[in-house]
Amino acid sequence: MAVSVVKDNEVRFSHGFGTRKIGRSGGTVTERTIFGVASLSKAFAATLIVKLLDEDGRYDIDTPLRVILQNDAIFSDELRSKYTTIRDLLAHRLGLPGNNKIRMDTNLTRANLIGRLKYLSFKGRFRDSYYYSNLMYGVLTHIAEVLGGKKWEELVKEHLFDPLGMTSSTFATIAKPESLELAQGYFNNYGQLEPVPWELSRRWGLLCGSGCVMTNAKDMAKWMLFHLSKGLGSEGVRVVNESSITTLHRPQLHLPYNTKDKFKKSEIPVPTTLCSYAMGFRNGHYRGYEILSHTGSTYGYRAILTLFPSENLGIFTAMTGDDQGYLFRTTLHNYLADIYLNQQPWLNQSTLCSFPEPFFKDTRPKTKPSIEKYRNLARNVTQYAGMYYHPAYKNLKIIPKFPLHMEYGFGKFKLYAMTNKDHFYMEAYDTAKFISSTYGKVIFHASERDKNVIDRIEIPSFQKNDPPIFLKGISTSAAYSKLGPISTADIIHPQFILKTVSVIVILLNGYSF
């Protein structure tokens, strides 16, 4: 773990704890040791975009995306395609489910992500619902590259890292791990710590503004001082306009109850509340003080940053391994805040020895569920096998083995039959096991015309509140393109029936039933 604290324009504490790698020769963690900080990258993405907009002069955060990208059909409905702005992306207020598993597709790029969005459906109201989205910060990454004319990594280094003296910070997408003083990330596989492959960090960081920054305690102290000073770099040099930083910190959207109330008064003596989302930061309170905070969680790494603007105080911590429910990160920040705010810490020598009890009762490690892996299939394996297609997720492959094997991008999965016909458990292996550690669910569907023919596959584990459905066969891409994006308004529109009929005709012509 690494920790840094800034107070009243000074670095008060910057230190590392433990070893960078399990074993006697793991090396000591210092203030210079590099950690992945995951979604703390979003504040870098937000800060960069407002700086580029200020310097460009043609647009601002309320300019519609269609103007900047010269595309009038970005999303699945006309409302969002016409009116969505950079502010909407920064504040997660589009109402689009995460669809995070798209990031396993090896053909995904920052540029072609734009063309996939119109095939994803919305579940929340526009500008009135909070749906956290790494994909939207991937779009912001692309927009920054359009405005800046360079790769996002180069732009962050040029506009933020270099002016702030963050000389050790880098990116999972381009860094060479052997040249870094790197803390190895670990995955807690039901009690067994396994090192996370660097290749996963590199691939998962593709949409860089959503989570590719790698940094250390020393550099993050400079980042906190920059935000607390409203945009000043070393020696008081202005890096970003004060008004732009103020805008980034301003609340944009209320958080739902289950998001903001993770540490309630009923659970711990002094709760932390998060009330709203700004732009790359969440707004909230601790002990009555206003805070700006954001967590970062990725495979092998956990981080959190908390700013107390009125007290000119900032706290950063990063760690390897797991932190279920943000339990240790948040309470550690509570303890450090109490010290630097001259408050009596609610954690003391007695409660620390029993922590997380008596505050959190059920913190036992999860045990891996047991399933039947040798149940006979309801059909011949060849009936399931083949290529499947979704216009946003693209290609998925089912391989005729026992058990069935599924491949999606770099994700590899074994499928085990459930008691329900054509329903399967999904177990990830190889690199994908770090992304999906428990048994998910896959559902094959038979054709309405011929129940002996499997024509599509539904994967709730990819997006539980809007499971993607992959259609079997290459010809299905033509069906999707004829149908086009479907919005909620379409369903009640008479023309929807005509569009649906056209797709049915395509499918009937494209399959042998």
TrEMBL record:
Residues 1-323 form the Beta-lactamase-related domain. Gene3D superfamilies: DD-peptidase/beta-lactamase superfamily (3.40.710.10). SUPFAM superfamilies: beta-lactamase/transpeptidase-like (SSF56601). This is Beta-lactamase-related domain-containing protein. Pfam families: Beta-lactamase. Coiled coil: none annotated. It comes from the Eukaryota. It comes from Pinctada imbricata (Atlantic pearl-oyster).
